[in-house]
Design a protein that fits this description.
Blueprint (H helix, E strand, L loop, with lengths): L9 H7 L3 H12 L14 E4 L4 E4 L7 E2 L14 H12 L7 H8 L3 H15 L10 E9 L8 H9 L8 E8 L4 E7 L3 H11 L5 E5 L12 E5 L13 H17 L8 H13 L5 H10 L8 H5 L3
Parallel strand pairs: 4-7, 7-8
Antiparallel strand pairs: 1-2, 2-3, 4-5, 5-6
Helix pairs in contact: 3-5, 3-10, 4-5, 5-9, 8-9
Bound molecules: zinc ion (ZN).
Zinc ion binds next to loops.
Length: 311
């Protein structure tokens, strides 16, 4: 079965993963490139119990039985792998995201289950190891959410006209290299300290920053080359612009406003992780993007309590 041609479209993926054994083999081959590893003793000798789709460790002191789901985002989930894999296919290959309502209907699971599935998949989409950006780097802030959407039009106008970044909005920072890699994070409030911490975490010292005219960057001092663009006057001065990161913001906002409607600030970083993933993998094909997420399912767990912040 592993020699069958791998799926390249959603239709093919649904057909291909309709066989539970194929799902198990596929996930196993991506998470354990050199064969299954016992989660208890890290032994590599085992039997496969085909009827129960579990491995049994051969180590005499261990004898642990383990499934392909153990230690992954799939652990403890009653949802079968065929539905998980189709959900990953959908979310990894969607430019604007997929709401839990859409996924629930498409997959035949409840909206609540779909919401949890999506958040766990976003965890697998999170960038694992991150290498700081170097060279010419666009850095920018944007503001998401707030209660403006529920306000009366007059009030909303007043609030929005009063400038970028009202107090009820969450500040998000992003950086983009000139070859098109993006990183972004929620910083809470736009303060000089938060902005500088983001830059130091994501950009190598000595790199050239292109930013807007926000004064908070000045505290970075001589550690970076720094060019600013004053949006009150112009948007581009030769190389000096932030158009790349701004196009990422419009993508993020399109997803947040169109697909997800309202996102609580607590969950915002997960939607950002999702958009960063699809953006940074935009040149890959659907199968490659899907496989990148499946490869990252191991070593990541997310419980209902963690995802909801309850308990
Ligand atoms: Zn073992």
């Amino acid at each position: 079965m592993a020699t069958d041609r791998l799926p390249t479209t959603l239709m093919e993926a649904i057909r291909y993963f309709s066989d539970e054994d194929v799902c198990v083999q596929f996930v196993a081959s991506l998470r354990w490139a050199d064969g299954p590893i016992c989660p208890r003793c890290e032994g590599t000798e085992h039997y496969y119990l085909a009827s129960r789709r579990v491995w049994k460790c051969k180590d005499k002191r261990c004898h642990k039985q383990f499934s392909v789901k153990v230690g992954t985002i799939f652990e403890d989930s009653p949802i079968k792998l065929d539905k998980w894999l189709c959900a990953i296919w959908l979310i990894a290959n969607s430019k604007n995201g997929i709401s839990s309502y859409e996924l629930g209907r498409a997959n035949g699971i409840t909206q609540k289950s779909a919401w949890f599935v999506l958040h766990r998949i976003r965890l697998a989409m999170q960038t694992g190891s991150f290498e700081k950006f170097d060279g010419e780097v666009e850095v920018d802030e944007t503001f998401i959410g707030g209660k403006a959407r529920n306000m009366h039009a007059d009030v909303r106008k007043r609030k929005i006209v009063s400038g970028r970044g009202g107090n009820d909005k969450t500040a998000v920072m992003g950086a983009r290299t000139r070859d098109g890699k993006v990183t972004a994070a929620v910083i809470g409030k736009r303060t000089s300290a938060n902005v500088n911490a983001f830059v130091r975490d994501t950009v190598e010292e000595g790199a050239t920053l292109y930013t807007d005219a926000y004064g908070g960057y000045r505290a970075l001092g001589a550690d970076y080359e720094h060019e600013t663009i004053d949006h009150a006057e112009t948007y581009v001065q030769g190389q000096v612009h932030t158009n790349g990161i701004e196009s990422f913001w419009s993508l993020l906002k399109r997803g947040l406003h169109g697909t997800y409607i309202s996102v609580e600030p607590f969950h915002l970083f997960r939607y950002i992780d999702e958009r960063v993933f699809t953006y940074n993998n935009r040149e890959a094909d659907d199968l490659a993007r899907f496989s990148t997420v499946v490869e990252a399912v191991a070593g990541r767990r997310l419980t209902w309590q963690q995802v909801t912040g309850k308990g």
